[in-house]
């Protein structure tokens, strides 16, 4: 069944050379829709009384199918390459745009830092003048002015002092991003001892009891930031103590194994982490506010006469993050708080 061959016309002449051949390639569609490819060679053989025609069929189906498949693959590959080129071109454009945006953002941050510095300096000057003039007003004219004026002046002084503290805390928080600190081996026990000496007057004023269950270990960290971490944590417990009971702060630690993530790390690898525990018997934190206590300026409303600035624990979280660690709290209202600061015993990799 050769429909394509039937439509072709081949002319051979008896005078043609005996070895002359005519070769054609045909495609055959069988009734069962199977497609076949052949080459047909026509050879004229002159005999005594007639000329014989020799036909040789060669099956090229596998070869042709392979060629068709190769052409299909090449077409798909060409399309994929073209799409990749377009994608890479778009990616380069996005990368260049990102670099431009980063540059603009860096310039903007520099300008904002200058503005913030200037505003901070001017505000501090104004606050200092307010405090100074209020003190002079009370000291020089105390006997001449009404008690309500004295009380008002005292309120102005307290408000100014709170504003000064807030400015100092903001500057301290901002400085965490700009310090080029290094990690070194430090004794956390010595760090804690220095912090307790620094806070000696605040601890005595609060009549607080500090209990250190065991000697804290040596880890790789930044000394200054560890001092700040302990100081803010202890100050927070002192600030939010219960007035009706003796303030108690318990400090302990565990060395635990945790999976390590980051660059150049073997999957499943674990390393030693120091989990610092700072527990107090203060007013506690309602569970619905746990996610807010480490966010800057997210103050929790309490009945305490002295409210926090909303920055101390945010600084603690930033310090923990910069040390490739984490900080968390377990607490409930009026049941005290347990803060957990988990830091790697050794640095040298990035915690995600």
What this model shows, in words?
The protein is α+β, with helices and mostly antiparallel strands and 352 residues long. Helix content is 46%, strand content 22%. It contains 7 helices and 10 strands. It has helices at 3-6, 61-141, 147-178, 188-198, 200-205, 223-239, 312-322; strands spanning 21-29, 35-46, 51-59, 184-187, 209-212, 218-221, 248-259, 270-280, 326-331, 337-344. The strands form 3 sheets. A 5-stranded mixed β-sheet has the order 5-7-8-10-9. The protein has a 3-stranded antiparallel β-sheet with strand order 1-2-3. It has a two-stranded antiparallel sheet with strand order 4-6. Strand 9 (326-331) and strand 10 form a beta hairpin. It is elongated. The model is unreliable at 1-14 (pLDDT under 50).
- What is the total tally of β strands? 10
Largest sheet, if any? 5 strands, mixed
What proportion strand?
Answer: 15-25%
Cα end-to-end separation: 71 Å
Low-pLDDT residue intervals, each spanning 5 or more residues? 1-14
Radius of gyration: 42 Å
- What is the mean predicted local confidence, pLDDT? 77
H/E element string? HEEEHHEHHEEHEEHEE
How many helices?
A: 7
Question: Could you outline the blueprint of secondary structure elements for this entry?
Answer:
Layout lengths: L2 H4 L14 E9 L5 E12 L4 E9 L1 H81 L5 H32 L5 E4 H11 L1 H6 L3 E4 L5 E4 L1 H17 L8 E12 L10 E11 L31 H11 L3 E6 L5 E8 L8
Parallel strand pairs: 5-7
Antiparallel strand pairs: 1-2, 2-3, 4-6, 7-8, 8-10, 9-10
């Amino acid at each position: 069944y050769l429909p394509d061959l039937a439509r072709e016309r081949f002319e051979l002449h008896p005078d043609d050379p005996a070895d002359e051949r005519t070769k054609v390639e045909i495609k055959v569609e069988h009734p069962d829709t199977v497609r076949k490819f052949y080459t047909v060679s026509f050879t004229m053989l002159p005999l005594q009384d007639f000329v014989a025609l020799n036909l040789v069929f060669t099956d090229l189906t596998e070869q042709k199918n392979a060629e068709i498949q190769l052409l299909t693959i090449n077409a798909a590959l060409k399309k994929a390459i073209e799409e990749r080129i377009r994608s890479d071109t778009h990616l380069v454009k996005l990368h260049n745009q990102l670099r431009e945006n980063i540059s603009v953002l860096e310039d903007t941050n520099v300008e904002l830092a200058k503005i913030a510095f200037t505003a901070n300096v001017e505000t501090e000057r104004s606050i200092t003048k307010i405090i100074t003039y209020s003190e002079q007003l009370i000291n020089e004219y105390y006997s001449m002015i009404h008690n309500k004026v004295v009380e008002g002046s005292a309120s102005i002084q307290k408000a100014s002092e709170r504003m000064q503290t807030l400015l100092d805390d903001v500057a301290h928080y901002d400085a965490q991003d700009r310090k080029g600190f290094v990690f070194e081996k430090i004794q956390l026990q010595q760090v804690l001892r220095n912090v307790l000496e620094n806070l000696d007057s605040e601890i005595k004023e609060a009549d607080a009891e500090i209990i250190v269950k065991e000697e804290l270990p040596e880890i790789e960290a930044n000394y200054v930031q560890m001092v700040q971490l302990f100081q803010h944590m202890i100050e927070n417990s002192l600030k939010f103590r219960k007035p009706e009971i003796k303030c108690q702060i318990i400090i302990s630690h565990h060395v635990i194994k945790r999976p390590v993530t980051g660059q150049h790390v073997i999957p499943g690898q674990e390393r030693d982490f120091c989990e610092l525990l700072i527990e107090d018997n203060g007013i506690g934190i309602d569970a619905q506010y746990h996610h807010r206590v480490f966010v800057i300026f997210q103050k929790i409303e309490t009945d305490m006469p002295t409210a926090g600035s909303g920055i101390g624990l945010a600084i603690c979280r930033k310090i923990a993050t910069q040390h490739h660690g984490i900080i968390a709290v377990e607490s409930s209202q009026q049941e005290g708080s347990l803060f957990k600061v988990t830091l790697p015993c050794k640095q040298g990799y990035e915690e995600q």
